[in-house]
Design a protein that fits this description.
By secondary structure, the protein is α/β, with parallel strands linked by helices. 40% of the residues lie in helices and 12% in strands. The strands form three sheets. A seven-stranded mixed β-sheet has the order 1-9-8-5-4-2-3, with helices on both faces. The longest helix is centred in the C-terminal third of the chain and has 21 residues, at 273-293. The N and C termini lie far apart (46 Å).
């Protein structure tokens, strides 16, 4: 553990007045909840909104509701995504079907999607990973004729737009996350949005049965948010980052997560969401643009397809090899730069799913998992941090030659992105 300036990989700061609003939520629960629901309905232009305990809880409820309507059981998810996504599918009692993604855009490989989306598929998740808006209308074009629902996963992209529409307003139904490290946070929380009355009715039935968070749970979350707010500052983050038992940034697959209604303390913490979201989006976009200008040409950047633009929750870069990625992450660890991989593997390699997914291969997703690093873009970064990040990315390029590609293992190893099978 070294007491030095240390950037968290992602951060969504909360101010003391947000914490105070959390306590207001405790004493004015109904006003606080109803105001938040009304604001989200108006912002997204949807009729139905529910606030729940997390993004994965939201996805589980959506899947149960859709299954009530259609009876189908297969859920198409991107080959590379947050482990919470397949865990919600399993928790809903359904099956994961993988579709590979395009390493240049993180959108689906549309040729594969057209093959995978058959008459057994309940829904396809359109995931705006790291705030990079994907082509929801194109997903819908494939899905609609086959009676497949489109679910937008906006967990990492709140505040993003595509073609003049907010991400989250294009699918049949969508969900947001307010977990730590998301665009804005209330500790943990999620929202479900839909304009479809049939889905709304099925969701209302699912949500009517939800338990409320206990008082102890509400207060614990508030205290954790306050502690995180204090420790997330780059001048203090070296301390929690150096405590291995906190397991910060660790990705786990688990299905026993709570599914409750969002409580009014969390809703209170979100009281100033519009201001916070504007500020968060502006800094992420600015920082990402700055970093993108100095990425060396042989590092692959990921840009949205078509008319999209990205909020960049973190800035993704594809290194030429796993060794280059590891070298950059090591250097970041030494210098406290907050550069980190995203998920440890593609969904195909999640140990708990290995039996059920053994015949589903997603080579581009596997390659992404091996070579992807993400750079921080959040509000707590300074100009000097940007300079240090650029220097780190460039130095790894100078020090590690192309020969490093050769010894990497796995399906995509040792090959440049443009040598991989074409996505579409
Ligand atoms: C793409 C994606 N989907 C879903 C989720 C689940 O959200 P939560 O952490 O609020 O359960 C996450 C969380 O990290 C995510 O990144």
């Amino acid at each position: 553990m070294r007491a030095q300036r240390t950037l968290p990989p992602s951060a969504a700061p909360i101010e003391w007045r947000d914490l105070a609003q959390g306590l207001v939520g405790l004493v004015q629960p109904h006003v606080t909840m109803h105001r938040l629901e009304a604001e989200f309905r108006a912002h997204f232009g949807v009729k139905h909104v529910w606030f729940v305990s997390s993004g994965k809880a939201a996805l589980t409820l959506i899947l149960r509701a859709l299954h009530r309507l259609s009876g189908r059981r297969q859920v198409v998810v991107p080959g590379y995504t947050c482990f919470s996504v397949p865990s919600a599918v399993i928790r809903a009692g359904l099956s994961v079907r993988l579709c590979d993604i395009n390493p240049k855009t993180f959108d689906y490989d549309f040729v594969r999607l057209a093959e995978v989306a058959d008459s057994e598929v309940l829904c396809v998740l359109a995931t705006h990973l790291l705030g990079i808006g994907v082509d929801v209308p194109r997903v819908a074009e494939i899905c609609h004729p086959k009676g497949i629902f489109v679910v937008e996963d906006v967990a990492q992209a709140f505040g993003g737009e595509r073609g003049g529409k907010f991400l989250g307003s294009m699918g049949h139904v969508s969900f947001l996350s307010f977990g730590r490290g998301k665009n804005i946070t209330c500790g943990s929380g999620g929202a479900i949005l839909t304009n479809d009355d049939r889905i709304g009715e099925a969701l209302a039935q699912e949500c009517a049965q939800l338990p409320a968070e206990s008082l102890a749970g509400r207060l614990k979350n508030w205290v954790e948010v306050a502690a995180t707010q204090f420790l997330i500052n780059p001048s203090r983050y070296w301390f929690p980052a150096g405590l291995p038992f906190l397991k910060l940034g660790e990705t786990k697959f688990y299905t026993d997560f709570p599914i409750t209604r969002m409580d009014s303390v969390r809703a209170g913490l979100l009281r100033r969401w519009k201001k916070r979201l504007c500020r968060s989006t502006a800094s992420r976009v600015n920082h990402a643009e700055h970093l993108l200008r100095s990425v060396p040409p042989h590092v692959q950047t990921i840009t949205p397809s078509g008319r999209g633009h990205a909020v960049y929750l973190r800035l993704p870069l594809l290194m030429r090899s796993k060794q280059e990625k590891d070298a950059l992450c090591r250097r970041s660890g030494e210098q406290g730069l907050g550069i980190s991989p995203l998920y440890p593997s593609a969904v195909e390699q999640i140990a708990e799913l290995s039996e059920t997914l053994s015949s589903q291969h997603v080579p581009q997703s596997t390659m992404i998992a091996e070579r992807l690093v993400t750079l921080p873009t959040h509000e707590l970064m300074s100009e000097a941090d940007l300079v240090r990040l650029c220097a780190a990315v460039n130095s790894v390029q100078h020090n590690q030659g192309l020969t490093m590609n050769c010894s990497s293992e796995g399906p995509g190893a040792g090959r440049r992105v443009d040598e991989l099978p074409r996505a579409n």
